Write a sequence for this structure.
């Protein structure tokens, strides 16, 4: 029997880390027979961001994906990642929703539930673990690994003992940012093996370049299950390549006994599949040792890159990466894993883009500071808490103890478009997005976001702006890479570029634009217009309400004629999957509302206008 077992991550965390979770089910199914025959301990294929991506972008029913994978993988455990009381969303759900979600996941094909809590507040995973055990499935209790002044090996070992007492079948050390070093992994695994009798499963991203060495020392210390990813979607922000780890352990006491040639057949298949998703490749997917300081996990760095690029501020990435550890310290050193990675990361972006720390505070940070996510690992900065939530009472009990049962209420809210309990649970995870998805599904009008052909980019008559090119001028050739732009909607606008590796700012003034009209490739000139295409006015006075980053309006709290005080919430915007309340900059009367729920908005657009009181 193999001494080291392998969980293969290519169907979930691999493409989540490298191509923004965009792989479609139709590209998974043809290779499932080969994956199923190799003998992996498990195939991670569900949970994490896959549920969100299916509904939001791919227009696939995530439950149907699971059913199809279950049918295509009859001999292999299917594993999912579950965020404890958060399930797959970004808030805590009532216990009846947690139990229903676990049972339906088990019914539809999940064998192994890896359950974690972003705060390592194990009160938040107890109900999930109980539900998994009741369903007769494998419960893997998870510890989110991090480093800080308040985290150490004795603390992690104590948590492992608690997970064993809870009834977990295995324990996972979840190193979501690649922070484990080889010798720290050896000491941690050795200490856990001495304290508990459960198998240790190690998950470590390759972001820092240390994961392969870390795996070797971990198995020497007694870890028996490793998370790896097929090399077609491995390394960098993803995980150590399956083939490399199999080869490294071959002929040793830790041999996986897996067929390397069979795995390489899978590699050849996914190598071709990955080419289809080129538009989602991030520039931040290689080895990045900065993670050892900023602790930004693999799936988050590309999201930060995308948001800053849309905000015309990609050149400020280093400022954001420097701000993240400061925000994390203010919040009591939470491990950076969903949803705390988004909570900390989004607030860091807001602090940088607004030019003042905590001038604007996201709703999720407010809820965190109120204890709605659980107990912070360390001491929270009380000055920041005061700025964000004032004297509001902080929750000290298990947050879900304050929640009333929700399933019946959710079923009523979506009864006109939900056709099953699975649909109700989808609605529970992402209400607005799921409502649109389920209505379109019922009307048979679902349209996934398009996959762009590389050839089409150069031959199509549709607009497509390159961000990297060469320019030859007076016999000299310059390599130019567009890294960001600012002041959306103005005819005169700065662009941030790298010219032969040197960062520059150039000012571009739009005099006219060419509107492409069709197959001939010709067009007509039109006047310069707002970049957003919706004609919103530019900010012109202190009563103009703007957003610091692009996003989607999820709530409009005011109407024309309303009186507001400075600091009152007027809008709620979703950016980076976090909600941020935008507040009135001055006291006065609302004289213009230029957005509605569901609108996409960009920086430097006036969203609401307030006329100040004299």
């Amino acid at each position: 029997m193999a001494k080291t077992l392998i969980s293969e991550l290519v169907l979930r965390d691999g493409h989540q880390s490298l191509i923004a979770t965009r792989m479609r089910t139709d590209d998974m199914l043809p290779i499932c027979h080969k994956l199923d025959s190799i003998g992996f301990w498990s195939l991670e294929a569900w949970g994490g961001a896959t549920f969100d991506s299916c509904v939001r972008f791919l227009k696939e029913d995530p439950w149907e994906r699971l059913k199809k994978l279950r049918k295509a993988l009859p001999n292999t455990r299917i594993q999912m990642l579950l965020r404890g009381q958060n399930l797959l969303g970004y808030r805590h759900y009532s216990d009846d929703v947690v139990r229903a979600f676990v049972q339906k996941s088990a019914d539809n094909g999940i064998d192994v539930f890896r359950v974690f809590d972003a705060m390592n507040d194990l009160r938040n995973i107890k109900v999930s673990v109980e539900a998994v055990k009741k369903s007769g499935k494998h419960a893997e209790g998870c510890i989110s690994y991090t480093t800080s002044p308040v985290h150490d090996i004795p603390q992690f070992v104590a948590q492992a003992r608690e997970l064993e007492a809870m009834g977990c079948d295995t324990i996972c050390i979840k190193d979501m940012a690649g922070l484990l070093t080889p010798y720290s992994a050896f000491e941690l695994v050795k200490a856990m093996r001495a304290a508990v009798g459960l198998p240790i499963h190690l998950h470590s991203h390759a972001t820092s370049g240390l994961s392969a060495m870390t795996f070797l020392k971990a198995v020497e210390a007694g870890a028996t299950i490793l998370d790896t990813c097929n090399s077609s979607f491995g390394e960098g922000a993803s995980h150590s390549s399956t083939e490399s780890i199999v080869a490294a352990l071959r002929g040793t006491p830790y041999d996986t006994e897996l067929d390397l040639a069979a795995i390489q057949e899978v590699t050849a298949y996914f190598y071709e599949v990955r080419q289809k998703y080129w538009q989602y490749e991030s520039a931040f997917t290689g080895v990045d040792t900065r993670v050892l300081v900023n602790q930004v996990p693999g799936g988050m760095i590309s999201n930060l890159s995308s948001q800053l690029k849309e905000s015309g501020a990609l050149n400020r990435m280093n400022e954001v990466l420097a701000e993240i550890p400061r925000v994390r310290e203010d919040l009591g050193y939470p491990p950076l894993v969903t949803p705390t990675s988004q909570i900390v990361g989004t607030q860091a972006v807001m602090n940088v883009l607004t030019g003042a720390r905590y001038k604007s505070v996201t709703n999720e940070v407010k809820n965190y500071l109120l204890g709605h996510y659980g107990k912070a690992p360390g001491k929270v900065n009380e000055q920041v808490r005061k700025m964000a939530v004032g004297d509001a009472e902080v929750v000290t009990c298990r947050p879900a103890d304050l929640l009333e049962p929700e399933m019946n209420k959710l079923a009523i809210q979506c009864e006109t478009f939900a056709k099953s309990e699975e649909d109700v649970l989808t609605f529970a995870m992402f209400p607005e997005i799921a409502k649109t998805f389920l209505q379109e599904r019922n009307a048979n009008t679902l349209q996934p976001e398009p996959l762009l052909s590389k050839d089409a980019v150069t031959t199509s008559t549709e607009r497509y702006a390159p961000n990297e090119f060469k320019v030859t001028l007076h016999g000299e050739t310059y390599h130019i890479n567009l890294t960001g732009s600012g002041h959306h909607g103005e005819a005169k606008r700065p662009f941030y570029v790298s010219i032969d590796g040197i960062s520059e700012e150039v000012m571009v003034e739009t005099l006219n634009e060419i509107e492409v009209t069709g197959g001939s490739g010709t067009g007509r000139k039109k006047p310069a217009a707002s970049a957003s295409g919706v004609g919103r006015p530019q900010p012109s006075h202190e009563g103009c309400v703007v957003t610091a980053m692009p996003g989607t309006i999820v709530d409009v709290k005011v109407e024309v004629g309303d009186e507001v005080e400075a600091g009152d919430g007027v809008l709620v915007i979703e950016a980076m999957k976090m909600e941020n309340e935008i507040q009135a900059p001055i006291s006065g009367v609302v004289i213009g509302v230029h957005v509605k729920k569901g609108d996409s908005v960009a920086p430097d657009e006036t969203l609401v206008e307030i006329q100040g009181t004299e």
